[in-house]
Amino acid sequence: MENRLRNLSILVEEYQTHILDLVMFSWISPSKENIESSLTKIFVSVFRGLKKKNIQVPLYLFVYLRAIKALLRSKGIPKKIKPPVRDLGNDVSIEEFSPKDFKRIDILESFRVINPSERIILCLNVRHRLSTEEIATLFSVTSGTILTKLHKSRVKIAKQIIRSVHPEAKKPPIKESRECFFTKNMESSYRTGLLKKDEASKITKHLSKCQMCRNFYDWNDEIDKLIEKVEKPTLDNQINKHVFYHLEKIAFVRNTIYNLRHNWMVKVPAIIAFLVVISLVVSSYRSDNKHKKALPKRSTYMPYQSAQVKAEAQLEKKLTYKFTAKTAKRKSTSKKLVEILKGFNARPANTAAEIMSDDGKVNYFHFLINKKDLNQLLETIKGLDTFEMTEETDTVVSGKDDIRVEVWVKKKNAE
Fold this sequence. Notes:
- The protein is α+β, with helices and mostly antiparallel strands.
- Helix content is 59%, strand content 9%.
- The chain folds into 2 domains: 2-237, no CATH class; 312-411, no CATH class.
- Strands 1, 2, 3, 4, 5 and 6 form a 6-stranded mixed beta sheet that branches.
């Protein structure tokens, strides 16, 4: 219990001094609602994680880890701004300008040109004094990756500051020497003291001679100073109430679940209430079914049927003639039938179908013909050579004008 209270006191101290600062730098200009929602998610996650015994990192890093995950998951956090299309090809050389010539720089506004993860890394490294190894542990990457991100983030911010003051600035087409290239790329390692003595002395000598590389290093130092000078935010008591209200609500829910599992004084009334609710639902369902059965059945008559539905129902009654023909010359016979049907103005029975369809061994004719032409059509079909036909009349002819007819033309050996 004492360890838990000690952990909570450390957590509150980290909460007041660092987490709110991290939220401000990742959101850039957060509103009160953003602060409250972000801090609530962070500390609900932290308090849940403290109950687990297998925490792999120290407590202060564990708090940062939960904060980073909560911030990067939030959908409303401002993303990196994209430059206008006209500025995509206009790069800026920060070596051409000295940071001493720029005054009243809004560093938080310049943070909009980097990603939220890069903002968090800069804040952790510059304001909270975390080493590259600690930040690499939080992001599950190597320390070299963190050094590269710090270097690129400072360069992006410096270019944004120069563009805001000198929008016409462009990078001159000058090739830099090997010494300048090495000095710029090793800036992060040189600042953190990770280089060997001979490499560090080489960079020191070059900086004493090259003004452009000195400007480059001055820009990185100036950006760190501006980040450190940003005033630390203060917590409103209302925010504390908002955060701990949600923590207490989660604790209440968890205690209730625990009592339902282990405490018989709570479990028995809860089970009884649950059974009562189920019985009420079942009884209401049965009463609804009885009520439905007692109601008179609705008539199937539809007075507002469309003309198309009525026409289709009428055509179904006109299916009166079916013919099956077995012949050795199926294809030639089918062609003759098509020509005959054209002469009698036969039409497809369905608007979306054709008069004839072929499914391999069978040709199927499904058509409408005028009632007065039916007998002449039948005589013409029966007069074809090598054509054997059986006539089937299974319903009574109905309708005024049209009759639906089906004809199958099969090979003799086909089933």
